[in-house]
Protein 1
Amino acid sequence: MSNTFYILSYITGGILILLALLNFIFPTRKSTLIIKLVFDVVTVVNCVFILHATNNTLIYASIGTSVVGISRDIIYSLRRKGKVFDNVFVPIAFAILFSCSLFITYRSWISVLPVVGSVVSSITLYSYNQKLTKIGAIVCASLYITYNAILLSSSDVLTIFALVSYVASFIGAAIGLFVLLLNNKTHKME
């Protein structure tokens, strides 16, 4: 049975890498939120497979933040459809939810890293400013890279897919920010 979880972890890990790259091929806010939603769903599935393959409970932090992230992505995508979601208290509420998830998922100090990354992501994803969103994605990806790099040493090679997907997210966000800044500079010069 463990071999099945390994194989499923590899497959979902590959999908995570693809989603991380797709997020910056389609850089609009709407596509970012849709791809982020799918990314968070696949992350939960991937982490459950890794948990069953390795029995490493440190993976709970990633599961917890991704579950909260799924609801955040749905609500943020509905933001324009109702005044309830178009409120400054929405990102604050998600920051609090992510922080509270730490009480359930805490296993060691590294459990804090995905929570902080998710709080940053929640605040910046709420913005309509794509530059701010990309900066938030860079910070979030950096924290998840650190988390997965530390987790890799105490876990299994399966965690490498999560690590690579966040490296791809970091690179994609950095390229996306560079392109936005370059376009902004070009438009100012015209």
Protein 2
Amino acid sequence: MNNIFLVNWVSTNVIERKTINYDFDTSHIRLAFEKDTHKYASNDEVNEVMRDLGYHSTGYDTEPYLNFNISSESPALIIYRNEILGSH
């Protein structure tokens, strides 16, 4: 997968916050990316891009499903809730 595409998507669709958001993990970001772009990304690719963009993570005991310092109001998580979970 072209990581530049993933980097651009994350940069546009993820909003940073100061604290770790334990309600969402890598898989939620990945599923939103796949739903929005119809392209596949692995959890490891998402983690790498998130770290490269300066996001902080925890949950190394459940890797590759890491929690990051991302806002619940991030477009990516809105896509996840609306398109994957079907809630509004």
Protein 3
Amino acid sequence: MGIALGALLVAAELVHSAWLVRLPVEGQIVDPVLPLLIAIAFRWPQWGPLAGLGAGLLQDLLFGGSLGLFALAKLLVGQGAAVLGRTVLVDQPLLPWITTAAATVVQQIVLGIVLVITDLLPVSVGDFGRPLLAGIGLNLLAVWPAFALVRALVALSERRRIRGEGAHGL
């Protein structure tokens, strides 16, 4: 299952870096990895932080920024989603939308704090107004496909597990 999750994250990050960066809205682009990371952490909490770190490092490498900047932000999102996945019923209908919006805000705040501390880029309060709302809206567009993919992986995993148990029972 780990290989399938890793391949899914890599594919989403490649689509993000090769295609979606060409469609900015208010200077923001859809980050399909964020809702996908949340969906993975909800279903397999043990994979949340590792998936976040891996996806963030890949994003750092593909976008040519400071190594570790997105890794830290996505690690925190993956850990937070994993903790939430262990403590609440993850099949609540609004939970994916609310957590994706919150994760977008958390990611932007972490990036802003790191950029201010390291003085890599000037960050102003204006960076958190309309651009942040645009980023939230764009990431919400990716919630349904991301969670549908993870649900399909869960169903496939369950079918394989049931077939495996049935073969041993004969």
